[in-house]
Amino acid sequence: MINKKIGLCRREILKGTVKDPEEMGKLFMTDGDLKAGLRSALRKMWTSSTRRIFIEKVRFPDTSSSRGKWLVKCDECGDVMPLSAKRYGLKKDGTPNKREKLVYEVDHLESLTLIDIDKDLAKYVQELFFGEMRILCRYPCHAERTKKQKAKK
Ligand SMILES: [Zn+2]
Questions:
Q1: What's the 135 CA to ligand 1 centre distance in angstroms?
Q2: Buried b (16+ CB within 10 A) or exposed e, 73-99
Q3: Centroid of ligand 1 to alpha carbon of 110 (angstroms)
Q4: Distance, CA 86 to ligand 1 centroid (Å)?
Q5: What is the pTM of this model?
Q6: How far is the CA of 143 from the centre of ligand 1 (A)?
Q7: How far is it, in rounded angstroms, from Cα 135 to Cα 108?
Q8: What are the φ and ψ backbone dihedral angles of 32, each rounded to 5 degrees?
Q9: SS3 sequence of 99-149
Q10: What value does the mean pLDDT of the chain take?
Q11: 74 & 3 share domain
Q12: Any bridge partners for residue 82, and if so which?
């Protein structure tokens, strides 16, 4: 639906039938598209900066291995996991995901919300990059937390 709208709009702009810049802006990108794009771009930046440094701070060496492997520990259940361990997660219907994911997630203590760009963006950036973080195992701790957060909204 959104794609159709954008496609149509591009044609109209090329034909010169949409002249109002305000209308153009609105049609080119919906509010939802803009928020999704911002979240994704900012998370990419976070992954290569704060998240990486945070992991370097909390990881610890696996003393049972002589190969210098690193471990991380779930903040909730205490499960110890290899830093680079990946596993196929399960979708809602029980089938495995297409790609393997790390067995843990870096979780923000403060939940990140970007509902209104004007109101929330500054706080979102602040919390994403400088908020308190912790390691959670993907299953079950992070999955439980996501469920609870969704239930709150
Ligand atoms: Zn856990």
A1: 8
A2: bbbbeebebbbeeeeeeeeeeeeeeee
A3: 18
A4: 15
A5: 0.75
A6: 9
A7: 9
A8: -65, -45
A9: EEEECEEEEECCCCCCCCHHHHHHHHHHHHHHCCEEEEEHHHHHHHHHHHH
A10: 85
A11: no
A12: 71
- Domain match, 39 and 67 both: no
Compute, in angstroms, the gap from residue 77 CA to the centroid of ligand 1.
4
71 C-alpha to center of ligand 1: Å?
14
pLDDT at 16 over 50: yes
Residues with CB under 5 A from ligand 1 (ion): 74, 76-77, 79, 137, 141
Q: What is the pLDDT of residues 64-105, one digit of tens each?
A: 877 779 999 999 999 999 999 998 877 778 788 888 999 999
Q: Are 83 and 74 in contact (CB under 8 A)?
A: no
pLDDT of residue 1: 37
pLDDT of 20-37, one tens digit each? 656 655 556 777 888 999
The boundaries of the domain holding residue 132 are 49-152
Give the tens place of pLDDT for each residue, 109-141.
998 999 999 999 999 999 999 999 999 999 899
Residue 106 Cα to ligand 1 middle (Å): 12
Domain count, the chain: 2
